[in-house]
Write a structure and sequence with these properties.
413 residues, mainly alpha, 2 domains, Growth Hormone, Chain: A, globular
Length: 413
Amino acid sequence: MKTNRATLVALLTRRHVAGPAWWSVLSRLPVYLMALAMVLVVREQGGSYPQAGLVSALYTVGMALGSPLIARCVDRRGRRAMLMGTGVVYPAALTALVWTTEPGDWAQPALALAAGMALPPANAFMRSLWARLPLRDYERETAYLWEALLTEILVIGAPLMLAALMLTGSAGIALTVVSTLGGIGALGLALTPLPEGANATPGSGAGNHAPSSWLGPLRSTPMLTLTSTMALCAVPIGLMTLAIPAFVDEHGSRGSTGVVYACWGVGSALGALWLGRSQSQVAAHRRFPRLVLAYAAGTGLPLLAVSPLTLGLALAVGSVPIALVSACEMSLVATVADDRSLTEAFTWASLATVAGDAVGLQAGGLLMDQFGPRGVFAAAFGIALLTALVAFACRGVLSRHTSTTVPEPSDSC
């Protein structure tokens, strides 16, 4: 039997898979750094932190408002028009923001909102595509492990790429380059041929019968249960995101914050590579609560830290299940969501995670002054344990399959 790494390499180099997989990586570069990049641009233009925060916040609001609508259009009308449209509008809006506006202009926050709404739906589309491609079960599990691993890589690597671009120019040039690369990736993803039946279109009948409720896939009890659990699962991440630098600063080692954060991401990535394949033999709805319990145990390890070094070690060990949880969540979305609205379902799943993380960040800020970083770590541990209990309680609901099509393995891929 192939190793997990060999299966991943074989999958990502396969005909009809390599093209969309790698174009989607390029298209997703802006997702993990654009909010930070806009803060840097506004500050570079002489704007205040409140002005920078407003522009970045409106960009995020635009994503939250526009992403489900764009994903629904992809499910109903096919990928090409929406990916090509957003692939042009998104970099155009951000380029205009950088080079034709300045802090205090009404146009700057308006363009930030428009850019957020026009973000190419590469994340959701690619994850829904993995569900539609004619793959074997272990290959699909590997594909979602790749998605989880890619998230870790981009979270760490995309800001480093932004920093490298800023060394050779301004924040404005860096933002323009990254948004243009994202647009090019979306265009490439739109024009790359896919295997027959891998992308629902109006002509295939799927788009004509997609659910019409504004709730879309959230009308499904299993999907609503899953997204709610995912949001709760993300709250400890937000809490720890705030507690980690506070702990390091408290111990007088502010310069090592980046290294400690990196330990968090590296542990998660290694967990996906080392343990991912062994997980696929257990049904996703049974595997999910076990992984969330392991994740909860991992969030408790920072409570044992007494220095930045031991915190880094605790994060490296404790983060091992994180990518596995994320991959299992994607497998469950593909299982419980209606096949006719998969792209929108993955969009709601991503938004649930973002919302949970935001709640954790806000709660961490409120708790920090009163309880310090150790108190915030304790809160993260407690909420993670609660999430594990919820996940175990929801096993029966998450075992319900509502997907209307199950692709069979084929050599056409």
